[in-house]
């Protein structure tokens, strides 16, 4: 039986012909990294390759490492296997990893979305024989509104809170979601204040994208300074002593999970905005169709349901276990990503 070009092992997705792992979750010699979230870029590998826009993000998180940056579409050969990176549209510097050997092409999508968010390089479909896809939101109820409509809702919510003399506290993932929020907030309504984790990561990516001015909340920041203004913070800040400085405040979360009211109630959030850095159900299907792939491997998310649907549509689809979280990290207050950012 022919050995597959990519295998799922206890260390990660492995290309034995090149002795290279894609987004490995245990320390390995050679790693190609799709993006900077902690579940995909981990410490301990001997060498890292990623897109050059992801290099400052990964080094900020992991410290001094042996890392190379590549450009979109730039081919690099390892033991006669050709690798290249293409935009995933997930967060700044996020890539799909294309692997080619003797005419066979696999694409590992990492995490991705096919809506242009105005912050990261937009998703680009890549033709392949086998496509490895996430399915974080692989259920029909997940259907995103256009980003412009979501931000109209967010800015209207901010304006209403301001008129009532309250501080608006908006929770979003430290890397990716927070910067997307920052980029599209209406600055005519007031100032944007940030939690330390958000401020630190935003400073890293300012060299890559032009973001509005923010003000770090410190011990010297007074409640009166914040009234009527916007605060962007990681979900882990909710319910912490840090929030006392915001009183009186109104909270909101920006996440794909806000599709379900129960998710908002469980986190005791006043308002939920459905905004995800992953594809919705239709986005996943459209993206897979655009690859022309005959085989699809489903990882992290609603894998069984989504793969079964794909098989009903004629794909050769199956599931594989990984240690990726998708957007589950947004619901986990102890998220490693937030604690390190």
From TrEMBL:
List the signal peptide residues.
none
Q: Name one GO molecular function term.
A: exonuclease activity
Keyword annotations for this protein, in alphabetical order, are:
Exonuclease, Hydrolase, Ligase, Nuclease
User: Which InterPro entries does this one have?
Assistant: MBL (IPR050698), RibonucZ/Hydroxyglut_hydro (IPR036866), Xnuc_lig_assoc (IPR026360)
Q: What is its EC number?
A: 3.1.-.-
Q: Which SUPFAM superfamilies match?
A: Metallo-hydrolase/oxidoreductase
Enzyme class, UniProt record, top EC level:
hydrolase
Entry annotated with the keyword Lipid biosynthesis: no
Residue ranges, annotated region (Disordered):
320-341
Cited PANTHER family: BLL1145 PROTEIN, CLEAVAGE AND POLYADENYLATION SPECIFICITY FACTOR FAMILY MEMBER
Protein name as annotated = Ligase-associated DNA damage response exonuclease
Q: Which organism is it from?
A: Ulvibacterium marinum
């Amino acid at each position: 039986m022919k050995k597959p070009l990519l295998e799922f092992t206890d260390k990660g997705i492995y290309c034995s012909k090149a002795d290279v792992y894609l987004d490995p979750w245990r320390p390995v010699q050679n790693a190609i990294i799709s993006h900077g979230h902690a579940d995909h870029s981990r410490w301990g590998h001997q060498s890292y390759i990623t897109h050059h826009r992801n290099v400052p993000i990964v080094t900020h998180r992991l410290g001094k490492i042996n890392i190379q940056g590549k450009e979109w579409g730039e081919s690099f050969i390892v033991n006669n296997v050709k690798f290249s990176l293409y935009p995933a549209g997930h967060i700044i510097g996020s890539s799909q990893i294309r692997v080619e050997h003797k005419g066979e092409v696999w694409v590992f999508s990492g995490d991705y979305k096919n809506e242009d968010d105005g912050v990261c390089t937009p998703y680009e479909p890549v033709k392949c024989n086998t496509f490895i896809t996430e399915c974080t939101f692989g259920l029909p109820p997940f259907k995103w509104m256009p980003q412009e409509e979501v931000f109209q809702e967010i800015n209207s919510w901010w304006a209403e809170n301001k008129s009532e003399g309250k501080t608006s506290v908006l929770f979003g993932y430290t890397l990716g979601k927070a910067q997307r929020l920052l980029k599209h907030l209406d600055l005519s309504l007031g100032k944007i204040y940030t939690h330390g984790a958000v401020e630190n990561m935003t400073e890293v990516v300012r060299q890559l994208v032009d973001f509005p001015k923010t003000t770090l909340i410190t011990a010297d920041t007074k409640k009166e300074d914040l009234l009527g203004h916007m605060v962007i913070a990681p979900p882990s800040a909710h319910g912490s002593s840090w929030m006392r400085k915001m009183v009186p405040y109104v909270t909101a979360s920006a996440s794909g999970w806000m599709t379900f009211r129960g998710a908002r109630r469980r986190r005791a959030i006043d308002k939920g905005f459905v905004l995800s850095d992953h594809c919705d159900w239709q986005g996943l299907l459209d993206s897979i169709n655009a690859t022309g792939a005959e085989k699809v491997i489903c990882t992290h998310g609603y894998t069984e349901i989504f793969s079964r649907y794909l098989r009903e549509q004629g794909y050769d689809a199956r599931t594989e276990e990984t240690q990726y979280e998708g957007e589950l990290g947004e619901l986990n207050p102890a998220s490693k990503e937030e604690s390190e950012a």
